[in-house]
Amino acid sequence: DTGVSQDPRHKITKRGQNVTFRCDPISEHNRLYWYRQTLGQGPEFLTYFQNEAQLEKSRLLSDRFSAERPKGSFSTLEIQRTEQGDSAMYLCASSAMRGRPVEQYFGPGTRLTVT
Amino acid sequence: GIQVEQSPPDLILQEGANSTLRCNFSDSVNNLQWFHQNPWGQLINLFYIPSGTKQNGRLSATTVATERYSLLYISSSQTTDSGVYFCAVVNSNTGKLIFGQGTTLQVKP
Fold first, then answer.
1. Which of B33, B100, B102 sits opposite A104 (nearest CB)?
2. Structure confidence by residue, pLDDT tens digits, B22-50
3. Which of A5, A10, A45, A113 to mutate to test the interface with B (most CBs of B within 10 A)?
4. Could you give the CA distance from residue B19 to residue B59 in angstroms, rounded to a whole number?
5. What separation in angstroms does the CA of A44 have from each of A22, A37, B5, B88, B100?
6. Alpha-carbon distances of A32 from A6, A64, A101, rounded to whole Å
7. What pLDDT shows up at residue B39?
8. Do B77 and B83 form a contact (C-beta atoms < 8 A)?
9. Chain B residues lying within 8 Å of A37, measured CB to CB
10. Is B7 at the interface with chain A, CB within 8 A?
């Protein structure tokens, strides 16, 4: 399977705990995106990387959130001191960059529940 | 920023019926994607369509970029077509997607 993968698929945590999610993009894709989706809404952009460089962060990404892509391959998204409002589906997508952005492909998502 | 509106928000069909989903966007865009989100939350790519018309089996899509809308046609609907359909426009510099609120489709047997 050469698609985008995410781990874990589900995470239940208690308020105040830290959580980390992983995304493995399609191997030849140099762009990687994180989105968040709450119930009944469309996904919302959080941040993106081109290779290892984080080029943009949304205002949705508070200082409790941090994302990395250290070697330009997989990426991690960490949430510190989780709050109930962080409960959502976290989606990762990747795409190639050939002069301009092209089609994005999504992973299965990580569903976070904060109790 | 660009606003994306989808209509209708909800749609119930009898199996075998045809439907049209609409996506309006507030500014010119370089590209647009249609997705189907299955009950497990996976976003499945349907079309990547900056302009013109594309067809894939029972599904087709048309984007009229100059008039800032796109349409998704589903013909001879099946129960497996149920789910949420999203359109998303592409920011030409960053490539980030800006999603609409989705159309929830239920196809009854």
1. B33
2. 999 998 887 899 999 998 899 999 999 98
3. A45
4. 10
5. 18, 6, 14, 10, 10
6. 12, 20, 11
7. 87
8. no
9. 41
10. no
